[in-house]
# Entry
Amino acid sequence: MKPLLLPTVLSLAFLLPMGICAADIEWEPNVYPHGNLFPSFLIGTARVDLSEEVFAAWGSNQIGDPQGMIGVALSGAEAGSQVEVVVRANDYMAESRLEATLDEDAENLLIHPKIAFNYKALAKVSQAVPLAITMSVTVDGESLGEQTETVTLRSINDCLFGVEERVDDEESHTSDYSWLFAAYVNENHPWVDRILKEALDTGIVSSFDGYQSGEVDNVLLQIFSIWNVMQLHGLKYSSVTTTAAVKKGVYSQHVRLFDESVTEAQANCVDGTVLLAAILRKIGLRPSLVLVPGHMFLAVDLDDETTIGLETTLMGSEDLRPTKEGSRLKKLEGKRTEESWDSFESAVSDGTESLEKNAKKFESDDLDYQVINVEKAREMGILPITYSQKN
# Structure
């Protein structure tokens, strides 16, 4: 994954009269990106280690939480001033504050308190809603009042993958957040074990031992057994990607959570890829999310030298669901095995061909071509989105 840079240029115009006093100091709320809050981002990056450079810090003209998304832009306060910024409590965060002494004069200075988010509540946000965030600023013991910013709290299904910031009239900067898709790979989801049990019931493999056998064919059969079960569940390709909330310069995509894809029996290219990646990671394999323009598919290591691609949109090309109501998966019938294997072969062929064709582009700085290794994402601190039981 490539280091990401948050924009350090703010389009704020403050008039600073001569002779600074409290009345001359100006401030306004600042919520990134562009007045939107993404629960998936807040949960996924809650434990990111800054030294890993997964989420690059704000520039030098900032104090407080280097990964802050909620704060104020302050101008007019002199070096040595004592500043306090308070973000009031609401349903999604506890009251949070930052007290600091300014090392230099403040000019468009960003101040971000470390926000105490209610992650359990954020995980349950199922649709975009307005959220009022109230902040107050005090300088040298004198209150500069409080302001309330109404932002858009996005659905947990909205995955932020890019933010465009205007630098000037002719130039813009795009920050890449496509690595956040790794947060939708939830190997800890309680439904993963259910799928694995069904896969064992088919008899294709007798156990899931990851790479322990040292046999590529055995690893391939483990992957196929999972593919086959998802076929039996009737999981089909769906092109739904649109998010309900749209903001210019904020790029996001709707991604179904694990249980939603299984229950609804449909998945777009991202849904199917993160779903299979979660199950494969659970059994000890090394999956990656592969991004090409307008599309995502899966890659997985068969051993230390062999990697295959898997085109997840071919899942569900045949309807293999059991016809008898309430039947249990005990074994695969011949026709189902043949049809399921045919679609699997096609998925491997198409995915691997795309991997090989774009190999050089994946090594470039082109943000449209990326391979997001889920294991490395976890090592860098990107957490899976918390499973939240539906009421």
